[in-house]
Amino acid sequence: MPHPDPASAAPADEAPAGAARLGAGVVRRPARLADGRELLYYDDPGTTLPDERRVDERDLTPRPDTATMRRDVLTGDWISVAAARQNRAHLPPADLDPLAPQSPTNPSELPSSYDVAVFENRSPSFGPALDVAVGTEPAAADAPRGLDDLAAPGLGRSRTSVGRCEVVCFSPERTGSFGTQTVTRARTVIEAWADRTAALSALPGIRQVFVFENRGEEIGVTLQHPHGQIYAYPYITPRTQLLLASIEREGADLFERIVAFEQAGPRVVIEGEHWIAYVPFAARWPIEVHLAPRRHAADFTELSGAERDELAPLYLRLLRGLDALYDADTLAFAGGTPYIAAWHQAPVDVARGTARLHLQLTSPRRAADKLKFLAGSEAAMGAWIGDIPPEQAAERLRAALATVPEASA
């Protein structure tokens, strides 16, 4: 079922008018961009920013039409054909960073200074149309008609790519990543992830919410600014469908048994009271780490305050450990180890009690100056070949983590 807004129960006098106080002292402040897109500021506890933020006064062209998705009859997958994405910014110069606060010479997407900011992507893969009109969002003419409709057979089937794609700016600084943030800032981002997961899950027609960060040009990053993204899909993703099939096959307690299995083995790399990180038994990538809560939580909204508090420093240390693996001894990856940080969450309205929130952190970096490229067997057939034994990978990562200092507050 859709989740309630976690801030909705906060007393009105806990934050200035129009704002909402979330967990850990984070304050959310709503705004709009010049073309009507939603913009949300998430202020750190004790922020020095003023309550009022500047208005976006740019003269913007209308937003592109919502994309159309087509069904691949060979696999059953839905492919969103979003041609407007061809026009998105690609490695702009620092003085034209579209995620930095606006200046007289840089008409960026963020009109005011910020701690953390979330806004709707201007060239999204999904949305802005939904399956029914909500607020300023239009209704799609040919939205998916439920999961049965999406699974129905037939050639040449298409639907409107309803949903939402958002950009999460971790910092106003122009370079860095999640791992370069302070513990306080990381905690603010985690609160934003939970808040947006709740809001997006409640939108009509949304079936799954995906939080992720891409890092490095080798992964395909087109902006150097520290940021991540959130996708709200109109279907359950293919990867999650496979997971749900595994839970059906292996049993409803699958994640509980995985955590116990890895806890007893040689692949744990870092752990806390509430979280455990390990190289999985059948790792595909040269660097692959899974991070999971010990207690079941379907998504970020179900994490307790204590679990969110511990996640911030532990996750920062894990990310910094990836860079310490090779001691920054090569110029091949000057921006640090490239990775995809993929936060898998349960679908909005199925498997809430069995599919557990967990991070799958993967990198194609197989040596100090080498990448793993997916070729015939993996890319074409999905038949993976591991380059490094998972136990060896875990041992190396533990050694790297031992050299990483605690993250600063």
Describe the overall structure.
The protein has 409 residues and is α+β, with helices and mostly antiparallel strands. It has 2 domains: 20-234, 2-Layer Sandwich (HIT family, subunit A); 240-401, HIT family, subunit A (2-Layer Sandwich), CATH 3.30.428.10. The chain is 21% helix and 20% strand. It is built from 7 helices and 17 strands. The strands form 3 sheets. It has a 12-stranded antiparallel β-sheet. It has a 3-stranded antiparallel β-sheet with strand order 5-4-7, with no helix packed on it. Strands 16-17 form a two-stranded antiparallel ribbon. The longest helix has 20 residues, at 305-324. The protein is globular. The two termini are 36 Å apart. The model is unreliable at 1-13 (pLDDT under 50). Residues 264-402 form the Galactose-1-phosphate uridyl transferase C-terminal domain. It is an enzyme of class 2 (transferase). Its cofactor is Zn(2+).
Give a quick set of tags describing it:
7 helices; 3-stranded antiparallel beta sheet; disordered N terminus; 21% helix; 2 domains; 409 residues; 17 strands; 12-stranded antiparallel beta sheet; 20% strand; alpha+beta; HIT family, subunit A
Q: What can be said about this structure in brief?
A:
This protein has 7 helices and 17 strands. It is an alpha+beta fold and 409 residues long.
Fold topology:
Blueprint: E1 20-21, E2 27-32, E3 38-43, E4 68-71, E5 78-81, E6 116-120, H1 147-151, E7 158-160, E8 164-169, H2 183-201, E9 208-215, E10 227-233, H3 238-250, H4 254-263, E11 268-271, E12 275-278, E13 287-293, H5 305-324, E14 339-344, E15 358-363, E16 365-367, E17 370-371, H6 376-381, H7 390-401
Antiparallel strand pairs: 1-2, 2-3, 3-6, 4-5, 4-7, 6-8, 8-10, 9-10, 9-14, 11-12, 12-13, 13-15, 14-15, 16-17
Helix pairs in contact: 2-5, 5-7
